[in-house]
Records
---
Amino acid sequence: MGRICPEIRREKVDKQNGRGWHRLLRASACTWAGLRAAWVNEAAFREEALAALVFLPLGLWLGENGVERALLAGSVLAILLVELLNSAIEAVVDRIGPERHELSGRAKDLGSAAVACAIALACLVWVCVLLL
């Protein structure tokens, strides 16, 4: 498995991100590399991203005003955000070593619980906005 944005990792700390548009372009490249890695390696992210393709436009259409649209769409994006963080935690834990350890298991379980909370939040927002 290749490294993500290896050219950035090799530079000195003071030149790591560059400035202005150059920094933005380099950061964007790393962002896309991270999204691609999540898509390729994480089934849960793929499933949630496909669901987001349905629910984001639906939320923007069903919301009656800007606040409702933001709540509906934002709650869906929150699931993707938390899933990306969970995947990052899992990758770091797996990088440390394959052996079982209580703290490694706890870290992965906490990440999974965070995703479940994000899904519950989205469900709550959708119910409150659309049904109450």
---
Amino acid sequence: MPSLGRLHLITDTRPGRDPLAVLRAALPVARTELVVQVRVLDDATDREAYDLACRIVAMCATYGATCLVNDRLHVALAAGAGGGHVGAGDLPVDAARRVLGPTAVLGATSREPVTAAAAVAAGATYLGVGPYRSTTTKDGLPPAIGVAGVRAVAEAVPVPVIAIGGVTVADVAALRAAGAYGVAVVGALSGAADPARATAELLGALTC
């Protein structure tokens, strides 16, 4: 199973964004500490998701980074990704584990201790926990859980907790103190004027 990096970059495929440009800036800086989660818009075709995932898998391989595919596990398998990530509306974690096999990285979304523990028991290797704060990068999210919510989950499970939802570099110290292993970001990198510098700053905060 690939080692899990502390910085998760979720691809921003909204109109006007260039996820590959952001990735080209972030990969040489983060290398093995980067996990790229390929997330596409709901109306994207499987072919579009597959083409993007294949390009990102190849880019990640050059730097030893891990590539996962969110939601569409068949695309993860077809593209040769290191695993996948499932949310509340996707396949149950135990079913996702059967699809991906025993050695793949499998992330699951959680926001409270009971469901978090259940996801780990079902085969999740890490948890994406949040939203930490309100964010506009994804529609239909539940209310923010804050640092206290992240801490509650981190204390309840033995696997890495990745805090997600409006995370900035200024939040990292508090999230790490609350037990988060790492953070997942979208806008903090896709909206940065200098994604390479933003990557370095996030990594510095995560590893200090």
---
Amino acid sequence: MSLSFSIPLAIRMVGEAGQGIILMGSILAKSLVKEGYWVAQSQHYGAQVRGGVSYCDTLFDIEPIDYPLADHFDVLYLMHGIGSNNIEKLKRNSILFYDEKFVEKLPQHINRITRKIVKVPASRVALEELSNINVANMISLGVLCSVTQLVSEEILIETVRENVSANYKDIDEKAVRIGYSLIEKRYPLKFYKKIERLGKGYE
């Protein structure tokens, strides 16, 4: 007898503390719940409020998740070079996003891990079009959801407006809309099943 079960997809967003990584992850998780997924999330704050490493992991699945942590990721969003060591945690043929302003270069062997690499001008666009680098995280979130086709633009905007302060609602909505239309590439994520055979007596 065989047992079939779904494998959760895992996303890590990582950057410098102060870039809004935790807020990105929280909004993504809540948006995925609205899209009907089972979701688990964990967060890590650097030792410093600004300057340390901050990351947020989001696992989601079409079935309940029995273990909420991941060692390797289907998607890595790198908002700062300070988190570049996380590239080693990418699965084969996964998706790597990186902010061109704060990630100077990628390791030479990255093409042996994946060719799905998306250079994102989020911080530059935030400054040039919205005059506020603090909304680069919302541009980035729009890019991630658009490229992976995980969350619709309207659900993402609805969730953003529910979870940011009143002063940021309008500018964050603009940032998400910019991000959603910024990159033409599409790398839809797909769930897959793992099948294991049960030993005699475990049917």
---
Amino acid sequence: MYAVIKTGGKQYRVAADDVITIEKIAGEAGSKVEFAEVLMIGGDKPKFGSPLVSGAKVVGEFVEATRGPKVISFKKRRRKNSRRKRGHRQDLVTVRIKSIVGA
């Protein structure tokens, strides 16, 4: 059985015991995380939400908080002596999916 969840403005296809990296959510290492925005539950008889599957949730465990790779945004206008360099590192969370509770 698998599910499609929505978190951080993105959609993820998850199954039990999967480890996913998502955008930062509140919590500490070892705590329980619940995703209530389930868009679809797949398996023998798939359930599709419109837009969400009612009564479904995905339970996971917060593994660790990390940061993504540094992304450099560099803009230059030639012959104008104009440059702008900005770096960014996204805060990320690693989550281990424990179970999918479907309605």
